[in-house]
Design brief:
The complex is a heterodimer of chains A (194) and B (172).
Chain A lengths: L10 H15 L10 H11 L5 H13 L6 H14 L2 H32 L4 H26 L9 H16 L4 H13 L4
Helix pairs in contact in A: 1-5, 3-4, 4-5
Chain B lengths: L1 H8 L5 H11 L5 H13 L4 H44 L3 H25 L9 H18 L4 H19 L3
The chains are: A mainly alpha (194), B mainly alpha (172).
């Protein structure tokens, strides 16, 4: 992160930041990952609140760390805040980004889940749940494949594919705790074998 | 409330951890129920793992459960990610850090694959029958991985087809 930004953030800018995440929340069907291009446009290209390097690092760290991927949003809030002054602003950025992103979608999901559970014997509800099941399974496998190819598809990345395949089999067939697997992956990568 | 504990330790991971905790260890959900809840979580806007925490939390403990599930989902991983980010900004130039991130990313993708494979067994009881399940699953896979269609198209397009077919097969 060679480039640094110094921002002058007042209440109006923070409000605008919060509003942007509020509006993205209901659009984020299929996860916040789909919203990355729009966030990049807003934060980096349009407002210059983050450098490109900060943006990419936020996404990469949250993807690799255990925990919901959506935390990259928190990291962006943090980085915007750090650019705007320091730790306090960073914490404010995290709070605004997360609440903005989560409140609208959570309220909707909560109510939909309640409604679906009350009407669980209704034909349409049962049809929806059963019909979506095979698609969701396909989607999960697709997600795994896309993540594995994130560093590149060509043959020179075969160790990445091998590691992904081996960890899939171990997780599928054994009860080994997942943190051990992630730790092993980190070690292999640290020594440059992956 | 036992849910707080679960949320703190078990939920702090990717989807693979959630599936293992909820279905295999705690047995709160069967494989079939998990896949149903996951499809709702997937189609609703918002981050899907978080939606799942909301759905499961609210089913067992009402609004309180939903809020606790959400908080548990965010709190510990948030601290972890922030720490990682701080470390990363200090050592971003060290080649080992980038390598470790890559290694963890590869493992994480393997874990998601394994979750998908495990859930295939939940399709056995599906009214569509295994032929249609395979066809729909493969169509989704091809659409996303090979053609790189936007997720919303796949979900609503294939989802619409699957919904209509299932609706006709279910007895009113």
């Amino acid at each position: 992160m060679s480039e640094t930004l110094t921002l002058n953030f007042g209440a109006a800018e923070w409000f605008q930041f919060f509003l942007h995440y509020l509006s993205l929340s209901l659009l984020a069907i299929g996860g916040a990952i789909a919203m990355i291009p729009d966030m990049h446009r807003f934060l980096v290209d349009q407002n210059f609140w983050l450098t490109n390097a900060q943006f990419n690092a936020s996404v990469a760290i949250a993807q690799a760390a255990p925990g919901p991927n959506v935390l990259f949003i928190a990291l962006m809030g943090w980085n915007v805040g750090m650019n705007a002054g320091g730790v306090l602003q960073g914490l404010l950025g995290i709070t605004l980004a997360i609440t903005g992103m989560l409140i609208p979608s959570s309220v909707l999901t909560y109510n939909a889940a309640q409604w679906g559970h009350r009407n669980r014997n209704m034909r349409a509800v049962r049809a929806f749940k059963q019909g979506m099941a095979p698609i969701v399974v396909g989607l999960l496998i697709a997600t795994g494949l896309i993540l594995a190819s994130a560093s590149g598809k060509s043959l020179e990345y075969w160790p990445v594919w091998l590691l992904a395949g081996v960890s899939a089999v171990i997780c599928w067939r054994t009860k080994l705790h997942i943190l051990w697997l992630l730790g092993a992956g980190a070690l292999l990568g640290w020594f440059g074998w992956i | 409330m036992s849910f707080t504990l679960l949320a703190l330790q078990g939920f702090g991971g990717v989807l693979a951890v959630v599936q293992r905790e909820l279905v295999e260890k705690k047995r709160w959900l069967s494989q079939e129920e998990f896949i149903e809840d996951w499809s709702v979580a997937q189609i609703m806007p918002g981050p899907n793992v978080i939606n799942l925490a909301l759905i499961v939390g609210s089913r067992y403990f009402g609004l309180k459960g939903a809020v606790v599930g959400l908080a548990g989902m965010m709190a510990v991983p948030l601290v972890l990610v922030l720490t990682l980010a701080l470390i990363y900004s200090q050592f971003a130039d060290h080649p080992g850090v980038a390598g470790a991130l890559r290694g963890m990313g590869a493992v994480a993708s393997g874990l998601i694959l394994a979750t998908g494979i495990k859930l295939i067994s939940a399709l056995k009881t599906n009214v569509l029958g295994w032929r249609w399940c395979t066809a729909l699953g493969l169509a989704c896979l091809v659409g996303i991985v090979m053609i790189r269609l936007p997720l919303a198209y796949v979900l609503f397009g294939l989802g619409g087809v699957a919904f209509t077919m299932t609706y006709r097969r279910l007895k009113p």
